[in-house]
Structure formats: C-alpha cells, structure tokens
Amino acid sequence: MSNIRDDWGLGEFFAGLGRGPWEHWGRGGRHRRRGPMFESGEMKFVILRLLKEKPRHGYEIIKALEEKMGGCYTPSAGTVYPTLQLLEDQGYIRADETDGKKVYHVTPEGDLFLEQNKDLLEEIIDRVRDTVRDFAGGSMGELNGAFGQVARATYRRAWRKGPEDPAIKQVAEILKKAAVEIDAAWEAGGIS
Question: What is the rounded CA–CA span in Å between residue 39 and residue 52?
Fold first, then answer.
C-alpha cells in the first residue's frame, strides 16, 4: 500500500486551485459524467484506505475524500455513515468516542482485508484518477483555473470585508452579468 500516494495521484490537477463552488459538481448538478465515481461496494475500500492514513470521524472522512478528489466529488453522509456501520459490523474498523464524536480506526482485520484487496483498491483509485483527469485536464483544467480565480477573488475579499460592505452588491451584479454572458456563450456554441 505504501506505493499509493496520499493525494492518490490527483494533486497535480488541483494545485493552486484551492476549493470553491466547483466542489458541488459531484452532487448531481447539471454536468454530465460517464458514470458514478464509485461502483457499488467500492466505498468500503476507499473509506478503509482513508482510515489507514489516519483515524477520522465521519465528517472528516467526507472532507478528506472531497479534498482528494479536488472538490469534484463529495460523498453524501447517506453513503459514508452506513458504510462505516457495515465496516464496523464486519470487524474491519472500530470506533472510539473522542470529544463527543466517534473516531474510527482500522483494526488488524481491516488491515488484512486491505492487504488482500490491494490490487482492487489500486484499480479503483486508478479509475477514479483517470475520471478526474479526464474531467479536470486540458481545456477543462483551464476552465477550472479561471473559475478558481473568480471564486478566490470573490470570496476572499467578501469574507474579509463582511456582509455589510457595499461592494458585495456590486460584485454580485458583476457575477450575475457574467452568468448571463456565459449562458449566451453556451447557447451560441449550440450547447445547452
């Protein structure tokens, strides 16, 4: 397992982008994808891999996976928590109460299960890496970078200035106009 990088080989696609509104792309928006990010039953391997890196509570698992996917996919709590319960029932993880939260740890049985399935886990990570690269590379990478610049320029200053700053309304109007122009560009290109 040590030959799998902690960023799962996805870090180069998102270096410098930070996270922003595109983090919701994996939540069923209007985008087109080739298929689900993970096939049925694969999430347990992914969660075990995350817990092998370090113990985490449920929300940390969601955030860690979102970060590893560069914001292109965020698992739902309805996927993560039942999978944690399944893994616990199978004896592959155990939970300790820390600061009022369940923190999950991989058990020796979970380590063995991961080792026995390391080829499958590597196939899952390779497939996901290819899917993200297809989505984030080339001209999509350029689009992602431009979107990241807009998000950073917008949110960083808005956060610092606060909700009452008069520039916020002006920036909102600029963004609304940009959205209209973007829609017009898609329509002009024959894409809806």
Answer: 21
3-state secondary structure 120-153: HHHHHHHHHHHHHHHHHCHHHHHHHHHHHHHHHH
Q: Which residues are bridge partners to 102 per DSSP? A: 97
Question: How far is residue 22's CA from residue 66's CA, in Å, rounded to a whole number?
Answer: 11
Structure tokens belonging to residue 178: 């940009």
Say which amino acid occupies 136: A
Q: 113: left (phi > 0), else alpha (psi -120 to 50), else beta?
A: alpha
Q: How many CB atoms lie within 10 A of CB 150?
A: 14
Q: CA nearest 2: which of 130, 121, 131?
A: 121
pTM for the model: 0.55
pLDDT given for residue 56 in this prediction: 94
Could you tell me the domains of the chain?
11-138 (1.10.10.10)
Name which of 62, 182, 69 is nearest 136 in CA terms: 69
Instruction: Give mean pLDDT, residues 76-103.
Output: 92
